[in-house]
Every structure is written in structure tokens, then in C-alpha cells.
Amino acid sequence: xxxxxxxxxxxxxxxxxxxxxxxxxxxxxxxxxxxxxxxxxxxxxxxxxxxxxxxxxxxxxxxxxxxxxxxxxxxxxxxxxxxxxxxxxxxxxxxxxxxxxxxxxxxxxxxxxxxxxxxxxxxxxxxxxxxxxxxxxxxxxxxxxxxxxxxxxxxxxxxxxxxxxxxxxxxxxxxxxxxxxxxxxxxxxx
Length: 190
Fold this sequence. Notes:
Layout lengths: L3 E13 L2 E6 L3 E4 L2 E4 L8 E4 L9 E11 L18 E9 L9 E7 L5 E7 L5 E9 L5 E4 L4 E3 L4 E5 L8 E8 L2 E8 L1
Antiparallel strand pairs: 1-2, 1-4, 1-6, 3-5, 6-7, 8-9, 9-13, 10-11, 10-12, 10-14, 14-15
């Protein structure tokens, strides 16, 4: 077992089209910015909010966590080859909620892509995020399309899209989505 150093960085999180965009932001501060842990250790970090104006809609951030294993001393025996040092990266979402209700307001649509496949698009015009766990579509000819284990987060003002089967039949489709805000249902015309 080796000591490891964990580094923390905070980034503002936005969605532009179907892409997540992380930018430097000074409204959240994390202290300490790095910690050294021995095997079996645990530690706490503090996240401090600096706001100069009130929030009107939810603000999203990601705490980036980089773990760097300690490089062994020269001549020390290790279980790993000298050329294999891994850095593990993860991130933790953080949401700052405005006063009152910050609920998502999701609209759904179908769009064709350049290959002729059908794209399901969700757009969030609300003041809060929503996490999709799964979604299913039932078509007019009994066709069923399921997207399980989605774990996609849709931020306020953001959108997400998923490619569906190219052979989707025209007509009215029934959409059911399982989200952290509760079940969502919609009728969509293809």
C-alpha cells in the first residue's frame, strides 16, 4: 500500500448543445486544494461559497478530484512496474439552488439526423436540473425503444439528445422517463 495525493479543482458547469462545458470560476473555493492520504486514512475538505449577487436560477459546478499515487523512493521495491503510474480522475456535481422552487421544465422533440436516424431531444427551460435514470418509448405500431441506466443530468438551459433506431415508425409515440424529479410522460409526433 502506498500514500496517495488527492487534488481538488472546482469548475462552473454549463451545457452548450449536447456538450458539457467546464470553466474556471471563483464563486466556490475548496480548502485544502490537495491532501496526502496514507492507506486507511480519511480527510475532510471544506467548500466555501462566495456570492456577490443573489441566484435567480440553479448554478451547477463540478469538483474535479485527481488522485496521484506516490512515486516510490529510488531503490524501493514496488508491486507495480516503474512505467505504470495511474492517475484516477473523478468529479462530484454540486448544485446551488436559488430561493423558492427550482424545478426542471423539460420539453421533448424528435429530430432526424443526417444519416436518417431519429434523435430524441430533451431541453430544460426550468430553473433546476433533472437526472434521467431511464426512458422508454412506445410507438404507434407497438415498437418499443428503451434507454436504461442513462444517468444523464440536464441543467437549466441545457439539452441532451439520444439517437434512436432508424426504423422508427411515423405517428404518435408515448414517452415515459424515470427521473430524480419523478416520472415524466409525453406524447411525441414523428
